[in-house]
Predict the 3D structure of the following.
Amino acid sequence: MITRPYALARRQLAPVDKLLEINWGLVLLIGLIASAGFAMLYSDADGHLWPWAGPQMLRFVAGLVILVAVSLVDIRVWMTAAYPSYVISLLLLVVVKVAGHTGLGAERWIAIGPIEIQPSELMKIALILALARYLHGLSVEDVSKPRHLAILLLLIGMPVLLVAIQPNLGTTLILVMDGASILFLAGLSWWWIVPTVSAVAAAIPVAWKFILHDYQKQRVLTFLNPDSDALGAGWNITQAKIAIGSGGLSGKGFLNGTQSRLNFLPEKQTDFIWTSFCEEFGFVGAIALLILFAVVIGYGVQIAVSARSQFARLLAMGIVLNFFFYIMINAMMVMGLIPVVGIPMPLVSYGGTAMLTVMFGFGLLMSAHVHRQVEIPRSGGII
Amino acid sequence: MPLFDRKDKSRYATFTRRSVMVSGAMTAVFAVLAGRLYQLQILNGDQYKTQADENRVNQRLIAPPRGRILDRFATELADNRRNYRVMLIAEQASDGVEAALDRIGKIIALPDHQKQRVIQEIAANKRFVPVPVAENLSWEEFSRINLHLPYLPGVQPDVGETRDYPYREGLSHVLGYVAAVSVADMQGSDDDPLLGLPGFRIGKRGIEKAYDHELRGRAGASRVEVNAYGRIIRELSRVPPIPGKDVWLTIDQQIQQLVDQRLGTESAGCCVMDIQTGDILALSSTPGFDPNAFNVGVTPDEWKSLTTDDHKPLINKALAGIYPPGSTFKPAVALAAVEAGIIEPGYSVHCSGSITLGNHDFHCWKKGGHGNVDLHRGIQCSCDVFFYETAKRVGIDAIEQTARKLGLGAATGIEIPGERAGFIPSRAWKERTYGIPWQLGETLNTGIGQGYVLVTPIQLCTMAARIASGTTVRPRIAHMAGGVVLPRPIPDPLPFKPDTFQKVRDGMFAVANEPGGTAYAWRIPNPGLEMSGKTGTAQVRVITKEERLAGVKKNETLPWKLRDHALFIAYAPSSAPRYALSIIMEHDGIASHPHVQIARDVLLFAQQRDPLKMPTAYPVGAAQAQTGKVPA
């Protein structure tokens, strides 16, 4: 089947060359964002490394190692690994449904020896890989053909369904958004997009009635009117807004946030860490952190559009968008713009699986950067 | 780029175009986030800052230490003592509250009802709030708890303050007690924020109530930072409380203690007074109650036994017990008679044992009669017929006025709440109340202190002091309160002719110093320390004609409730009086006159100790001229 030589497209790089090819500026930015997280975890523990900041630093170091290692691996290897990793992640999602244990009202965790992982986190990467892999072989016109679209939607639909029944609304949303945005980037016809979006809008009342759990409905209701239950379910939103607002222009100062340190904030070290950051560092600090995020995303977009293979482009952009969706949902949630859904702030929130998957994702992005000149035939990238 | 096929070029173009669109969307989202931050932190920042402060800052009141109550020589009658207690913090009790209580129960006594109360209180409070398990522990018990502390998770030894009355039942009616604030207290005019403080105690009775504001002090405040669960994290600022000021009483605890001891468990009241200043040296009502018990809370059983006791331990008999004065009223009648000029030289009444008025016989206590009786012997032997006749001649109006001048029929104004006024009847009152005129027979009954006349022991003591001093002396028990010496009026001379008092005093001297006197057997033999006095018996039952014929039953043979009340008033030394005393023992009219023995011993002790000559621990302060006139 191979009709053309690939030697020219396969610029072979030595590992040392690859190390130099890594965009270290981007790594530095990632480190800066993670440091903001360390500072807040230190502050939320009343100025102690234990129990959050220290472990988080160790995980970040492990994440850095993963990032570099992943980026050195040839992009075609990742292409080869795309389907197997998708299948494994899907199986793990089934396993966690059957044998996992419940955390905070949802079955999300699976224990492998001493390590507890969330298969839904792995799935985010695996889905992006699989979609990029499949779309790599399709022309723009192919994407909108029902035969291919059906397969693509099946690829997205299976994990979405498994995560949704855990139930895990946040990750479900992210998976749907990841999948939809990759289809969009691959050139899905507007003839599909416009009617689908309209249909989804029409389906929201149906979802409300039959799909959402009571606690999810409660979140939406209290979001719409947080004062209706200011000491109950509305507490989170109200206290988060007080924390952010009371930071003012310049913030209360490092280690001086009263809202978070006095436990008025729920989940202050995970989902609500952005609020304590805004409280202690104020508008100036919050905008600075947003700019850091934006620059990292800008780098990512630049990497995506400069890659030569469709797989690398879609992979890179998928990773960037996944990162962006995390930030968007988390920030909007804690600032009272959308209902509360359990999504952490990437790189900043405390959490092992999330940190490692985000760093793994950046590794893939970096691999796309390092191997940006690699061209891959449509039929596949097996080496 | 020869290797790129045409189709890939179109893919690339599409991807780039759509990436730009996506980037635009992402930029828009970032703009929304920044805008929201601006709105929350810049536009509404101040409002949220206020809310954050309201969240975290909590004002807590600090109770001031209560002022002490001291006697004239600075003996502490009420003070604050360390309250060793054990608290339990539910969230730290690793294996549950009940297991923790069981473990405490093995170290100190912990009754089941107390355990139940603790479990209820823990359920009602947040899990980090320390709940008292046991209070007022002995040092030994407290040490045992501390020793076992490593094995008692969640248990917290604590030292608080509690009101302490070292003399317990003695003085209980003078001092009163403190207890938790009731709903009624909260609704009163007192809007002190301390009343809302959990566990705060206020004066409920006696001096504790009368001078509650002076003793209480002013609340301090502590601004504390609390976390979302209300747990205190740190103190931001503190205004220290202003401690309550001591109250100084005129009591001499030495005399008080003797009186309390001698009255024992009898149902009795006694009052000892300085006849010149009106300073109360001892004021006792027995049986008393333990004010310490009210502080921690009286159990329903204790309360029931206090309220159903026929000796009425909750009634302050010295102030609120009203009795017919019986023969102790005779000096007042005698004074009225002398003042009215009835007692001329040679005035005497023949006593045959009874006197007839209309169709009714009025009996003397002595069945055979006293023969010819003059004023001196009339008082000395307490001859009823003499006073029937004399009262008849003097008339009720003069008796009423004299009685009022001696301080009867109106509250004395002692600083302890709950005093009753007693009663002196008058013609006008009789007409007004019953619509029929005053009857002469009623004058006769009044003449021996029976009928409508009612007095309190403190009034009787005041009367004795007024006869002895010839002035309008009034009782007072509080000398200093709130850091200032209370006003001390100079008594006016009573408006009687110069030798009027002397005749009555001679009679009262004879009662306890001349053979045949009703108190001669219990006289003070020490030269210069003699007491003058007047005995009295108040009948609480009607003696029927049949019984009188068969012989009046002796008190010793009657049930306790039907026996006569025994009264005695006295002052000493007779030659230059300083100490006045009144005593009443309910249902104790027996021949050996234990109440007179007590009066004798107390007056002798008082004179030998002579507290009035000793310098007081408080500044004496200048007495002020009295403006109020004697009520007539």
Observations:
- Residues 1 and 9 of chain B are 10 Å apart (CA to CA).
